[in-house]
């Protein structure tokens, strides 16, 4: 409970001055039957005053396979383990991450639901249920704010987005992608979406409470909606989280959250109260019992890229002592071989973290260093080859080797600790079954050219 209070603290600051009572009659979605297969709202009256505790008489809301749930990471089931039979495959996202969505229309009210047009020529996400492969068409995205619906190990997040998809083979079968958000840097897409909505309001083309307001934006699914580093997800069988709570949803809740600022959270507060003054601004349903249901962990395939950098560092610096110990066998976290000082440890971690963040890798680890000696013209500097091994989620990054090669060498420099020069020499794809070619960096290429010139 303490962790849930901490996670909600930012949201409470965002709405501290707002006293809210009332209800919201907006609906998440339910079974579709129109020719365009759009989800239609059910004729149920409900509100969020008790966050769904009083919905048991509405539709299937009192059923045994309800959502949302608390995801306990110590109880996850690996569907690839022998003897595990779920009857549902993992999701193949296919072309969805690289798709661009157009014709965006938003509802300027509580859940900020928006619809869009999906390109007709893409390969849609697929899930095999039983023995039938279902193609799923994304229909809409909406938000649950100030408290996420799903929790992970009891911890709530300030925002959760739901991408609702419908089976082309069975209109009563839905799949939902759940994207959690934590407080941090501003989310560029949320800014783009809300700025476009405010422009429509300020120009008099719409007002709070308007529905299906056209916005002059496009959506890059990978950059704007999905987690940037990993498409690993928790999967389970559940329901819609609003009445009529139909138990027809294959849930996919991503393990890696996106970030948003506290100021962006306030936008949902404005949209809720300016559209319906008596609405309850926190639109999450309370956690439902699992009733014996398993939650599965689906890990995306990994790519491994090894990069070698030519580096130069100052004699007597933190970089010199850290790299000297590393070459001698010292390793971070090793129970009997970690002799780094706190300054050396912070330096090593800093290089690794900048490499990881600059490439959106899951991990970046210094795996080797070979000290070559002193520079002839600058004896106070030592030159060496530094190897960093990167791990990427292949589903989230279509060109991991390119991501490493595009990383600016300046990102890895740390002049304060003596790491003065960094120059990419080679990259190698070590992914099993992948192309194991070695690519030469610009710095090494120039050195080879100069060496060739001098021999002529």
UniProtKB/TrEMBL annotation:
Single GO MF descriptor: zinc ion binding
Q: Which UniProt keywords apply?
A: Lyase, Metal-binding, Signal, Zinc
Q: What Pfam families does this protein's entry cite?
A: Carb_anhydrase
Annotated family:
Belongs to the alpha-carbonic anhydrase family.
EC number(s) on record?
A: 4.2.1.1
Reactions catalysed, as given in the entry: hydrogencarbonate + H(+) = CO2 + H2O
Q: Which cofactor does it need?
A: Zn(2+)
Name assigned to this protein: Carbonic anhydrase
Q: Which residues form the Alpha-carbonic anhydrase domain?
A: 44-299
| Secretion signal span | 1-22
The EC class name is lyase
Cited InterPro entries? Alpha_CA_prokaryot-like, CA_dom, CA_dom_sf, Carbonic_anhydrase_a-class, Carbonic_anhydrase_a-class_CS
Describe the task this protein carries out. Answer: Reversible hydration of carbon dioxide.
Q: Note the SUPFAM superfamilies from the entry.
A: Carbonic anhydrase
């Amino acid at each position: 409970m303490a962790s849930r209070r901490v996670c909600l603290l930012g949201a409470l600051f965002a709405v501290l001055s707002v006293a809210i009572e009332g209800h919201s009659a907006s609906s998440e979605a339910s079974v579709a039957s129109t020719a365009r297969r759009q989800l239609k709202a059910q004729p149920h009256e409900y509100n969020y005053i008790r966050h769904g505790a009083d919905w048991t008489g509405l539709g299937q809301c009192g059923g045994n396979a309800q959502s949302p749930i608390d995801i306990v990471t110590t109880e996850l089931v690996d569907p690839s383990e022998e003897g595990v039979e779920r009857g549902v495959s993992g999701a193949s996202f296919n072309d969805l991450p690289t798709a661009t969505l157009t014709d965006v229309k938003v509802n300027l009210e509580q859940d900020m639901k928006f619809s869009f047009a999906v390109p007709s020529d893409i390969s849609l996400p697929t899930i095999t249920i039983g023995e039938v492969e279902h193609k799923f068409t994304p229909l809409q995205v909406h938000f649950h704010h100030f408290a996420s619906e799903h929790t992970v190990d009891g911890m709530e997040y300030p925002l959760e987005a739901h991408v609702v998809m419908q089976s082309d083979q069975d209109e009563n079968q839905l799949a939902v992608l759940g994207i959690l958000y934590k407080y941090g840097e501003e989310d560029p897409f949320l800014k783009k979406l809300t700025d476009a909505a405010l422009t429509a309001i300020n120009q008099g083309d719409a007002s709070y409470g308007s529905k299906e307001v056209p916005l002059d934006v496009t959506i890059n699914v990978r950059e704007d909606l999905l987690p940037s580093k990993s498409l690993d997800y928790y999967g389970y069988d559940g329901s819609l989280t609003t009445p009529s709570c139909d138990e027809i949803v294959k849930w996919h809740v991503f393990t890696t959250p996106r970030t948003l600022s506290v100021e962006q959270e306030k936008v949902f507060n404005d949209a809720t109260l300016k559209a319906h003054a008596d609405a309850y601004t926190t639109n999450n349903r309370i956690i439902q019992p699992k009733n014996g249901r398993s939650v599965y962990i689906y890990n995306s395939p990994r790519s491994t890229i090894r990069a070698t950098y030519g580096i130069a560092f100052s004699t007597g610096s933190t970089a010199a002592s850290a790299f000297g110990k590393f070459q001698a066998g010292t390793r971070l976290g090793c129970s009997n071989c970690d002799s780094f000082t706190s300054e050396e440890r912070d330096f090593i971690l800093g290089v690794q973290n900048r490499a990881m963040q600059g490439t959106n890798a899951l991990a970046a680890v210094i795996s080797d260093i070979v000290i070559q000696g002193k520079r002839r013209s600058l004896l106070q500097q030592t030159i060496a080859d530094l190897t960093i091994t990167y791990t990427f989620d292949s589903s989230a990054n279509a060109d991991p080797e390119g991501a490493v090669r595009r990383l600016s060498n300046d990102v890895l420099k740390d002049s304060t600790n003596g790491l003065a020069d960094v120059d990419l020499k080679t990259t190698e794809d070590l992914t099993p079954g992948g192309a194991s070619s070695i690519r030469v960096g610009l710095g090494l290429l120039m050195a080879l050219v100069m060496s060739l010139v001098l021999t002529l």
